[in-house]
Request: fold
Amino acid sequence: MTPNNIFIAGILLISVYACCGKLSCEEGHSGPTHESMQAVFDLKPFRPAVNLSNPTIANISFTLYAVLGVNEKTQILTTFLWLRLYWHHEFLVWDPEECDGVTRISLPVKELWTPDIIVYEFVDDDVSQACPYVYINHTGHIRWDRMLRLVSACNLEIFNFPFDVQNCTFTFGSYMHTIRDVRISPALTFHEMSLNSKLYLEASGEWELVDILGETSILQFGIDEWDIITFWVVIKRRPVLYVVNLLIPSSFLMLIDILSFYLPPHSVDRASFKMTLILGYTVFLLIMNDLLPSTANGTPIIGIYFSVCLALMVISLLETVIITNVLHNNSMKYRQVPNWVRVVVLKHIARLICYRWPEEVHPPSAMERIKPEALNDGVTPRVIQPERQTPNHDQASTTGVCAVPELQQICQHLSDLRTHLVSLQKEGELHEQWCHVGYVLDFLLFRIYLLLITCYALVIISMWCIWISQT
Reply:
């Protein structure tokens, strides 16, 4: 049959249905006859309207059954919908009393005209299982239930990850038919669609449905207008997985870094411990990198959180390096503590951070206890002559001559020993003073570090509270 013959036959059938308006039924048959149904099937290329100036009204509703995946890098949302579509077929009308009381039948959808309703955000083919049948009641209203695997483009905001709320748009509309041919309206209220979706989605995956909103509007392109329905699907991520696997381990590592300040600052083990901790934190970030979303638009706040934590650990290591340099480098060179360091560090800063010395009264230094004349090497020690007995003259002269050099050598050794002990005591006092300087600076930097971490924790907690209040 040529296209012209099909068009002429269609016009004749439309005229017949315009006059009669109902399908014929025969006795002994439940429902319309096959011949009358075949006549309707032949009208598949034509929109099922007796008067083509009247648009066909299509009603749409859907249930969000599952969120299959969210790809932040490609900005794609994959969902699974139960879609229900209603429209009126004016040629499929019969009288139930004449058709043995049959009010509803099922027919193959491929034999009927269907509205070309699509989702404008589609970015991939639908690979879901197709439903080959539709239900038709005696008034000509058709219900088509189908499953739809929707891969749609969505502007994903990941700054608040893992406490993010996504608002994705589903726009339903006809691809070819303008507003003069097909009109679209929701079959259910948006609140009812939201309740039905929450009923099925409440136990699914890491995403939770917040609400489904929508509105009907007209899309104008040139001189043509299309009737569309826009749905806003608001979903919220369940953050428990990421809090347990990311935030809590990171917080534990930061706590260990804080407790490492209680190691002795003059010990080299503190620096090696902090370097090992930084290495472990870096390995932790590399392992958990797959759980973090990545886009070209921006960085999530959890990435900033990890970067700041790593920076704080590096600052902590730098503080340890400074204190180690003060304690070891200066004290080993036996330098005097500068006067400005005594005033600024040991007096004002120590008072500011409430640092208490181990002893309240400092004993006088060794240089203060030793008289200046005792260190004069040019003075010859006085030799006490022993009492003379009654030996002969030759023996007494020999003993006097030998005793004076030996006593002078002993006194010289005692003087050197005393000088060495005074030097050791002076070095000990210099080392003790530099230790006090190092302890004061360590206390000061530790309190500054605690202040930074406290402010940082308050910022994170505030953002958490804002997220909870918004959701």
